[in-house]
Amino acid sequence: MRDQEAAADDQDDDPKQAEPEWRPPARIRPKVAERPRQRVDLKALFGLASGGWAWTTAVKATAAMGLSFTCAALLLDPSTGALAALGSMTVLYEKNTPYVHRAVALALVGLGFVLSVALGSLASLTPWTAAVAIGLVAGVATWICQALRVDKPGALFFVLVCAISTIVPGGVAMVPTHAGVAAIGAGIGWLVSMTGAPFRSRHPEHRAVADAFRQLAALLRAIGTPKLDHVQHDASLAVAEAWRLVLLAQTRGYRDTPAAARLRALLRWVSDIHLAATEVSMARTEPLPAVAADFAEGLAAAVGKPELCPDPARLDEVRKGLRPRSLESRLYSHLARAAPTARKRDHEINGRGGVLYDTRYPSIADSLRSALSRDSLVRPTTLRMGITVAAAGLLGIALGADRFYWISITATAVLQGGNVVLTVNRSTQRALGTALGVFIGAGLLMLEPPLPVVIAAAAVFQGLTQLVVGRNFFYASILMTPMALLLAHTAAPYPVEQLAESRVIDTVIGSAAGMLGAVLLWRKASASRLPQTIIEVLDDARTVVTEVLDPDVRISPERRYRLRRDLRADLLSLRGVYDSAVGDVPRARTTQPLWPVVIATQRTGYLALSALALEDPPPAAHITLQRVDLAFRELRAAMQEERAPHLGALPRLVDYPRINMELRALSSSMRTAVAEDERGAEKERQLRAQREQRRAREESDADL
């Protein structure tokens, strides 16, 4: 398909005529995607999310629990064997990270499990201390997991391990034994998780880079469609995840190998193709030829199998008639130039991608400290989790619940939804799933199965839970409940009928407690953080644009890398904060009008990234540079002061017309959002006045 600028060339038949200087045209702005909607409905409760089934995780979870439960039961006794089975859940963490990082991270997770068991055993003297200890573990585990970016299941299994340890017989005298048994289970989980290291040592990094190429293919297919903005965000997430995992693998010795250099080079191409595709997506309102997305899919396959690399000649047909400096031509050029790198199994160490200008990861102390800052969402999430889980357990004790810890566990699972809407969905799924799962678990226990059958059943239910949990929490709850009942009954035998009845009641109470915690505690944290997140993106975009346009500034490769990294991180944070804020009720009514502002800010940031990726970006005059800087500062001030911006006339950026377009769109959307806020506030004042008048009339009628 020919680019739109080439149409003008068809009018000039004289080959001797000098070709005019190319200027990218200001095209029609792509339509804004429909804002994300989070609802409590049948599809959200019972529908399957997109994605595949987690077969590998399911098999590993089954093996880890079966082995650990069997070993501890044979060495000690079945009740302590349940703790080993819980300790084996280390296998559920760090499933996608490089093995060199996973080895250390899982050891720390196992240590966390051991400490949770020790604290639970020490706190088992009274139910009250046990409830507080479970809440403390929930809060601390949430803080550490979110600060260190530990993926799901997050704090849930730390709480489960602590809760079950409070009922295992033995008391304080058995704390060392209980902790040791949990360590055995954690060690077995570590071994099972690391089984692929000798055979496919670089598989996690290969998969991350391949997934990034696949998301880029999806982005190329989404150009010219209404879902562009959402797919753009998904592609950015995949690119950022690929960067993170490749960085985590950069250990001494590994980073100096040709295979590691190839991965870094492919990662560079992923970033360049992403930014080129971004600029094309902002300039087109019609789809790209399908061959471009198919070529990106071929590059994804070639990451792990170089022999599957597509031939760059496949792009020759779509490149015909395009100007060499056109946006589409640059995109196709990046795709074609990535093929030689993907085709080779090794890459020169000092070549393209030899240096990433970054450390593997920030220090643990810095990550934990920044997570507690006033601007971080981790702090309110941590406090909400810890307070709610402790209060739920204490409420259960006050109500006379024998198994109060199930209330705490349920509240933890429910609160992992994040915002109010997702929490309501998860609480409903948890309650309904548990009610069905109790029948299965109670039925098995009533048959009084021998220990080998209990071990096998618990392991199978654990594996099935991990198979479906990524697709729907309701079905996972059905399968997780029998596993939890089998472990709890083995750790502390209890009449089956009473166990089943209390499990259902405790789940309902825990679900209600989780919903109350989500509604009452820091419900507006995400919505309150959203304006500041928009400001941070504008600040970073202003820095990038002014440095790119300034003819007196030379951006070094390291500086370019860090600018790109920081702006991309803020863009991902922006969408994450908005997606969380829009699920808050009733705060969502004031968040929804900001969707066009979020999209315009997001597009401005991506256009700044695209300009930063140019090898020789055209500079601007100093007066133009100053006016652009003033425009960004005015938009920032308007967002901070919650007023309409007074932007005035923007300078004409001939070489970057889409930046002008998005800045105007951002100004317009901010004015609209302010107007809607004012209308909403006026309506609220009118309703309040009507209520006061009605109350006054009622009081007057009562006096008469």
From TrEMBL:
Residues 1-13 have a biased composition (Acidic residues). Residues 1-34, 670-704 are annotated as: Disordered. Its main location: membrane. It is found in: Membrane. Keywords: Membrane, Transmembrane, Transmembrane helix. Residues 392-516 form the Integral membrane bound transporter domain. It comes from Spinactinospora alkalitolerans. The chain crosses the membrane at residues 99-122, 128-148, 155-175, 181-199, 382-399, 436-461, 473-492, 504-522. This is Putative membrane protein YccC. It comes from the Bacteria. Pfam families: FUSC_2.
